[in-house]
Q: What sequence folds into this?
């Protein structure tokens, strides 16, 4: 656990602050407390890397606090709210006001400690602390030494994602950090991914504790129940079974006939749902996802889908481990990315530099095209499991029809660079139009997201002095197209 | 050669003329009556021509009126409307019908689609709309299979929450303002049901569809307008009819009948509600393209009409108990649709036996009169139609309409005969479960 973190306890009463301090002291963190009046209570914040514990007084009026708009900085605070009651409304209020976690009073010391530990995990994940390359190499070495070819996830319901990688955690730290490290290694081509699970997370707190429940489509009441319907053959009347019941008999409310035999007198065409609150009748109930962590209620489509992978070491991992560095592990990997099948960024920049020099010297035209994948972030966030398929298809469409001489590389996660030696910008525009049409024609991706690219073109004969200048100019033109 | 042929033709014409003069020169009045029995002159002339003339005059002098102010105030409330779209094996048309309903733009419109146990992909076609929250979709999953159109409509009604109910077919699509015109007449609290103006969508598909388009234009666009004036509208089509919810509940909604829309309309009339026609509420429907399909549909309709109007609801003729106008219109319907159909067949037999040679003259004269009045009625119907520019070409097909009506009359003759003789009583339209249990009329 990083030692730079400390805990600030905020309270309106000294005895409550002392109680919390005593409960947290076994964790061994540095701690301090502040006693404030109720009015200033929520606006107080701690130092950077300080976990704030807000011990809210029992008489704290959450309804009046709701009117206080949360500040932007609240969202980034690593803080625990200890609220007077654990109702869904109070929890939702706390999360809306920036709580990273919530504990309802009365609490036990062990509960408080486990919440604080969880916040440390979440906070570290949120801070995106990069794991040093040496640790990643160390992890690969450990895997190879133990003959471990796969890093499989284990289920841990207490973690926000519900999964962790115990082998990776032993070397790389907590669940969040190790999962990020594994993703980075996979991005570098040192690990391959195979899908083992898919989970859905709350769009507010990124937690997997979702309760899917059926509610009334009209008033959202959960007091909705399925009821069979009856169709009386003789008069064609259709109604709920309850409308036909008369003590133990079934009597048609329309023609007063007694229904004796299913299949002969009557039939049950199906089940419909009746809301006890508003009496609304629906063919199907609405389904909503209630987050049991933060209380947020969302449509199932709004929840965030996350893939859970099993990672396997690729041949590149052995060479990276032997060479002691993640990139440039072999010569082919230096020129061409195994993951994308395109040129590596380094090779591309090197070639671009050479071509600029050649263009200036031999007076030959040269064009650089930057191609931005629109909505890449959205696909990454909402359809992570299909990201590879999406990106790979778009890459193929972009490079289809290019000459052998042309070079394509991933400049950033959503930005491709295409180098077209011997091509004037006007000619490149035809290429760009064709490219946009090819991408737009990828109909099989529409179920994920509409594929779309925007291209900028810069070039000429000896116009630019270096790669950096040329890329900067292309970026500037791309920005004008936003 | 030519002279010889011309001479022969002249002799033949002279012979025929002599025969005609001999036969008609000294006949009694009842024989004249008998010769001109094709009931056009004695029955259909006042029945159809008079309304055409009156409506033409009313239109020319802009006498058509409605309480627009009361209607406007009523529509401002935007009352809740539920649309019931029920079908069986309608995979080809259900999505189009739903899209058309969604275009109606009525706030809070509730669209209930019931798949009556289809064996095709109807449910799957409608499902995306349900998943998007645009419709309520229900599938009949009963072990005994489909329940029939009336039961499916009742099921949809059970789900419905609207104050007004619009019943539509899966192969029907609607003008964007159709719902407003359908619901508008309910400003009058005595109105329990509104009949929409159905037109033919696939009018250019075949000769049969053109004929049916003309028939719809005359029998709905013209005839129902006329009945509106007299307060004698008797029926709203199941393909496009609107109902007040309390009316439906009061009469027990749809019964398991072959012509369940006619049955429901008559129950509504007997309960004392008004049925009105909304000419500006326009919906398009697909009609049978082939002769076989047309014959099968008319066969079912004709049987259903007799069964419902006379056998089940014959007591509506008690004018002292129900509105005399109901009794009059049903009596007229019976006279022209049933009595005259049989009388025509008998007459034809007598004529063939005794004076067969006169029949060509009688048919020729009848045809000319029929075609002429059809043309005149079509002009009036087109003048009143909102789609006259697209329907004008139908005038070219007027000469064939009399022949089409003649064919329809024979279809009716056989359907009614079978119905009276209880042959093929159980039509496929309703499932066996309904036939086993429903009362026989």
A:
């Amino acid at each position: 656990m990083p030692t730079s973190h400390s805990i600030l306890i905020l309270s309106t009463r000294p005895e409550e602050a002392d109680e919390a301090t005593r409960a947290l002291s076994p964790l061994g963190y540095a701690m301090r407390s502040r006693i404030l009046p109720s009015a200033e209570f929520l606006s107080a914040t701690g130092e950077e890397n300080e976990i704030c514990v807000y011990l809210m007084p029992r008489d704290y009026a959450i309804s009046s606090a709701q009117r206080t708009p949360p500040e932007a900085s609240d969202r980034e605070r690593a803080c625990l709210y200890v609220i007077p009651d654990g109702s869904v409304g109070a929890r939702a209020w706390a999360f809306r006001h920036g709580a990273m976690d919530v504990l309802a009073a009365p609490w036990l010391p062990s509960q408080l400690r486990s919440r604080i530990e969880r916040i440390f995990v979440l906070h570290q994940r949120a801070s995106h602390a990069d794991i040093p390359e040496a640790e990643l190499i160390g992890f690969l070495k450990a895997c190879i030494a133990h003959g471990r070819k796969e890093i499989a996830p284990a289920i841990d319901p207490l973690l926000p994602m519900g999964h962790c990688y115990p082998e990776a955690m032993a070397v790389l730290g907590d669940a969040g950090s190790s999962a990020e490290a594994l993703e980075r290694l996979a991005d570098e081509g040192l690990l391959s991914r195979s899908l083992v699970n898919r989970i859905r997370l709350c769009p507010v707190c990124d937690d997997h504790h979702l309760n899917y429940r059926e509610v009334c489509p009209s008033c959202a009441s959960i007091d909705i129940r399925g009821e069979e319907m009856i169709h009386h053959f003789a008069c064609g009347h259709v109604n709920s079974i309850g409308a036909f019941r008369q003590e133990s008999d079934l009597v048609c409310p329309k023609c007063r006939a007694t229904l004796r035999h299913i299949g002969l007198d009557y039939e049950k065409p199906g089940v419909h749902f009746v809301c006890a609150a508003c009496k609304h009748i629906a063919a199907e109930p609405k389904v909503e996802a209630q987050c049991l962590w933060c209380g947020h209620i969302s449509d199932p489509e709004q929840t965030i889908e996350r893939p859970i992978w099993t990672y396997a070491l690729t041949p590149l991992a052995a060479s990276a481990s032997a060479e002691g560095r993640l990139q440039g592990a072999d010569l082919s990997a230096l020129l061409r990315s195994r993951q994308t099948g395109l040129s590596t960024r380094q090779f591309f920049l090197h070639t671009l530099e050479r071509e600029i020099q050649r263009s200036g010297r031999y007076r030959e035209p040269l064009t650089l095209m930057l191609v931005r994948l629109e909505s890449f972030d959205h696909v990454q966030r909402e359809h992570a499991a299909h990201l590879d398929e999406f990106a790979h298809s778009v890459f193929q469409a972009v490079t289809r029809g290019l000459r052998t001489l042309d070079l394509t590389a991933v400049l950033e996660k959503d930005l491709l660079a295409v180098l077209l030696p011997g091509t004037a910008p006007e000619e490149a525009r035809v290429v760009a139009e064709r490219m946009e049409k090819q991408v737009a024609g990828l109909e099989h991706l529409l179920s994920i997201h509409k594929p779309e690219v925007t291209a900028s073109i810069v070039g000429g004969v000896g116009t630019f002095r270096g790669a950096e200048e040329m890329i900067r100019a292309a970026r500037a033109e791309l920005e004008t197209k936003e | 050669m030519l002279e010889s042929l011309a001479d022969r033709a002249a002799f033949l014409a002279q012979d025929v003329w002599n025969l005609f003069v001999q036969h008609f020169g000294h006949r009694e009045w009842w024989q004249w009556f008998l010769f001109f029995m094709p009931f056009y002159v004695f029955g259909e002339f006042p029945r159809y021509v008079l309304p055409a003339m009156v409506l033409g005059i009313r239109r020319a002098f802009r006498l058509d009126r409605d309480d627009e102010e009361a209607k406007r105030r009523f529509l401002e409330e935007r009352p809740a409307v539920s649309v019931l779209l029920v079908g069986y094996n309608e995979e080809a048309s259900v999505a189009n019908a739903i899209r058309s309903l969604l275009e109606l733009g009525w706030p809070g419109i509730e669209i209930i689609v019931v798949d009556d146990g289809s064996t095709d992909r109807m449910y799957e076609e409608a499902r995306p709309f349900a998943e998007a929250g645009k419709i309520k979709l229900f599938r009949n999953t009963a072990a005994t299979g489909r329940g029939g159109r009336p039961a499916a409509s009742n099921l949809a009604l059970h789900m419905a929450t609207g104050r007004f109910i619009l019943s539509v077919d899966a192969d029907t699509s609607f003008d964007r303002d159709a719902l407003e015109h359908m619901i508008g007449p309910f400003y009058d609290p005595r109105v329990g049901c509104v009949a929409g103006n159905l037109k033919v969508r696939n009018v250019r598909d075949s000769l049969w569809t053109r004929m049916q388009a003309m028939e719809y234009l005359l029998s709905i666009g013209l005839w129902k307008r006329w009945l509106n004036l007299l307060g004698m509208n008797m029926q709203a089509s199941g393909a496009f009819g609107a109902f007040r919810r309390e009316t439906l509940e009061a009469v027990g909604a749809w019964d398991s009948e072959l012509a369940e829309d006619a049955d429901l309309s008559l129950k509504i009339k007997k309960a004392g509600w008004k049925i009105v026609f909304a000419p500006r509420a326009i919906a398009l429907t697909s009609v049978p393209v082939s002769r076989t399909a047309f014959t099968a549909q008319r066969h079912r309709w004709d049987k259903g009409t007799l069964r419902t109007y006379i056998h089940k609801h014959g007591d509506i003729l008690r004018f002292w108990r129900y509105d005399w106008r109901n009794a009059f219109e049903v009596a007229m319907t019976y006279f022209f649709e049933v009595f005259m159909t049989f009388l025509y067949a008998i007459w034809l037999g007598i004529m063939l036996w005794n004076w067969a040679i006169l029949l060509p003259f009688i048919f020729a004269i009848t045809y000319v009169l029929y075609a002429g009045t059809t043309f005149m009625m079509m002009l009036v119907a087109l003048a009143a139609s909102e789609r006259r520019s697209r329907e004008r070409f139908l005038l070219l097909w007027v000469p064939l309409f009399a022949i089409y009506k003649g064919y329809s009359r024979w279809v009716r003759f056989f359907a009614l005969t079978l119905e009276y003789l209880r042959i093929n009583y159980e039509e496929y339209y309703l499932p066996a479960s309904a036939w086993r249990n429903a009362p026989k009329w």
User: Anything to note?
Assistant: Chain B has a mean pLDDT of 87. Chain B is about 55% helix and 10% strand. Chain B touches chain A at residues 112, 117, 130, 133, 136-144, 147-148, 150-151, 154-155, 157-159, 161, 252-256, 260, 433-434, 436-439 (CB under 8 Å). Residues 68-301 of chain B form a domain with the Spore Coat Polysaccharide Biosynthesis Protein SpsA; Chain A fold (CATH 3.90.550.10).
